[in-house]
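Why do we bother with holo predictions? Because pocket geometry can differ from the apo form. Keep that in mind while you read this record for zinc ion.
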Amino acid sequence: MSQATAYERFVRWLDARVTREGRGDLLDALDVDPSGVFWLGRLAPESAAVARPGRERRMDPCAVGARIRPTASGPWVFRVRVEACGWHRVAAGSSGGANDKWAKSEIVTVDVPIDMPTGVERSFGAETITTRLRAAGVTATAEIRVTDESWRDGRPELTVELVNTTPEGKQVPRGERYLFQTKLTISGLNTIPYILESLPDSFRYDRSLDAIGINCGVEHDRATGTLTTADTVVVERRRPEYTFDDTARSVLDLTFDTLAQTPLEPTNQLAAAYRRWGDRHWSDQVLDARAQREGWSTDMADYARTEADAYRAEAARIRRGVQILASDATLRQAFTLMNEAMSLAARGKYPDWRPFQLGFILSVLPSLVDGQKEWDTVEIVWFATGGGKTETYLGLLLLAAFYDRLRGKRSGITAWSRFPLRMLSLQQTQRFADALAAGELVRRRHDIKGHPIALGYFIGGTSTPNEIPKHPTETNDINVEDDAMPAKYQVLARCSFCAQHTIETRFNRREWRLEHHCRNEHCDLAGEPLPLYIVDAEIYRFLPTVVIGTLDKASVIGMQANMRGFVHGPTAWCTREGHGFTYAKRGSRKNGCLVPDCDAPTRPITDEQRSRFAPTFRLQDELHLLRDSLGAVDSHYEAILDGLQRELTGRTCKIIASSATLEGYSRQVDTLYSRPGRVFPQAGPTAGESFWSRETDRLLRRFVAVWPRGVTLEWVSDRTTTILQQSVRDLMADPETLSREIGIDPKHVPDIVNLYGTDVIYGNTVRDVEAARRSMGTQVPVEPLRVESLTGQTSFTEVRDVLAALINPGADFADRIHVLTASSMISHGVDVDRLNIMTVLGVPLTTAEFIQATARVGRTHPGLVYVIHKVGRERDSTVYSHFRAFVDQGDRFVEPIPVTRSSRKVLELTTPAAVEARRLFVHEPRSPQQRLTTIQLLREYVNLTGVSPDVEVDAIAATLGVRDTEYLLREDLETDLKDGYYAKLQEYGLGLKWPSELLGRRPMLSLRDVESQIPISDD
Ligand SMILES: [Zn+2]
Ligand SMILES: [Zn+2]
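The structure, written out:
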């Protein structure tokens, strides 16, 4: 048996254990009331439920069953089988239920014939069921209740429920009035499925739903036609594969090594194969035939044709990419060098491209070369998580970096990649560093001129330094005398050049650099610092090829003259070795060099050189997270970046994005960037299969929807974790017996313990996560239990240590992390193959977040995901009722992104940055003294050059992307600038000194921060 099969069996066995424990299958004695223990399979008495409002009734339901559509109209004759048991108190303890003794009855099975007339609600089997329950010593009573619901839309429809009819009775202990381990089976009735509400791309999906569960899941046995209630709703997703048929490795060679040698033939073959496949799946005849067979509506057929056109456009772009590769020798060379670097970076772990990765890169080539033609189109990469998106990005970045170098851009930023979270994943950083290191080695090997291909880690703030001060200050306590200081800022876990864990950080006093060094003497980089810059000031000084960081960092554009290299180019070179580029002169920096006390002469950069510096790409990861106020604020900052770059260099960056969402992307892209957008790859004509990927029969993730009945979500979560942990420990303790029970070879046990010994508990809020963490200590009776937490509030060094412990667990199980409580902080860029079990506390607020969060588990091995619903919430209730569709077709349930740019409130927040950025990047370099740091200097400049407020209003409106039709925004800007800024500028005696005081508002410190203020100085 293969390893994968063994893991699948383990996952299903584990889940069966949790479900059995949830129902109490394995117990026949208890010393507490069972109604406070079990969360599955129980039924509360109706008499208690009717007294409660609907929401509470849902929390502890008194009925389970199914809503079905019989094929024929009534009367209906069929059979229902009921299974249930009860618990009774055999001995009462002293007080308050302590020391009670409870015993379980046998399971009672009753077959009830149903002869159901039309138009009524009717009970069946009350007497038989109750008699049988009594005989087994059960106090509770029950009946089958069938209701004709055909009135709803005229078509036959029934609800069939098992109802607990136990009457009120205060003298009977609570638990005795419940039924447990209930199950209902409907047979002998032909039914037709429900059709899910039609959505635009419904031609791709199976929209049928066999039955709708009432307070439970329903399983349909297609062979016999029986419907059975299930305590959990289980949906298993299959693992995709990326090479098959025309793209199988035996047919199409997309290895990096081959593409580095002979790029044209394989890319040509790929383009041709895509076209052939399209003829087979998207042609008019094929669509017509499907429309006939599947009964498409006109809308569905029209939509399918639109999608077919989108496929053809994509196929044409890929063909054009291949043509350009053939005709442009420089680009071809960049492409081969990139492949050589990808091969090096992969270190033999994966030898080739997945077809869609290469397809995307080819599809972007036309806009790289065809000048401005499709430059403005935002290219959105949409791959299932785990599909290899980052490698695709990296390939494109390396290609662009080589293309830049070969065309004479020898230094400066090629791409600025932004992540929307507060913290950037260190794993992601390592992957970027590895790829760029390979790029640098290839650059050296081929003697390509220019600066090293380097990486900038542009985070600042609490994670990495903004700058290294000469002496610790009030706002920056970094102390260069402190020998322990450099170690705090180690960003890479292993060397990006030799992959060894031989990295150390050092402070280089002479060059004033915080350097990563490799101690491995056989490393290619032995003796020199890695081309990695983690201090903001060093990023300005060296403008590394690729800068990665958080989206928030865009706010610096309104505060920091040294950001000039992100939209244009630096001022000059410092002639002292290792000092790098210089920027605007300041009181503390006489020559503009960012190394403290440097007074070396500078070497000028010509305008022509400077115009080459601006980045080629801005990348935006997780585009769907740019919503609400963050999206609105960012849209203005994107406009500032574009506006400055366009004014200073005559062009803008190309924007590449990734998204987990396809819904409403064009509106979102238009709002954020004022540009058109398109998604790659185009989805295939049926769900789960396209040219680029299809589902295999291997288990990807098993999703289990849990509706906690009568107990709290916290109780269920704690119990689930206990069982999950205990099961792994049981397996370790007795591998022979349990392996037999699971049906696997015991040799797999150590790997299973390694891969399934850590449970992730995912909370939607930091409060949920903290509560879960606290209850681990008291409510989960498993020893030892190491619990760690990852939230947005976890410090940089803690994140680093927790990740390291997850990736490289100790040999001893006891020392490992057993439970990881986490927030959405882990949803992006935390890729640990050892995380395979997750409990989700309440359905996340957005479907995109659900997809991203649950994708953290089961990346390489079968995953198990419990989604414990918050039964009081309407959304959870809705998701539970169509959980299968929610998981299978999650992408379609993703909500459109709410984002707008036309907000006066947002404009009020972003105007200061636009005004300040123009002062720093547009006006200051034009001013006689290259300095506009004070109001006095600015006034002299304005009066000398005659910069008119009217022209500035236009320019700032353009910079902020305020459209002419947005009258209110326009008016706000005019008032702000004419009546405020420029009026005050000419007014003496206001006691103001700094230009940033003229508006009365300062640029935002962070894109999320609406309240913050910044200290100002001549700096
Ligand atoms: Zn090394
Ligand atoms: Zn210098």
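The mean pLDDT is 90.
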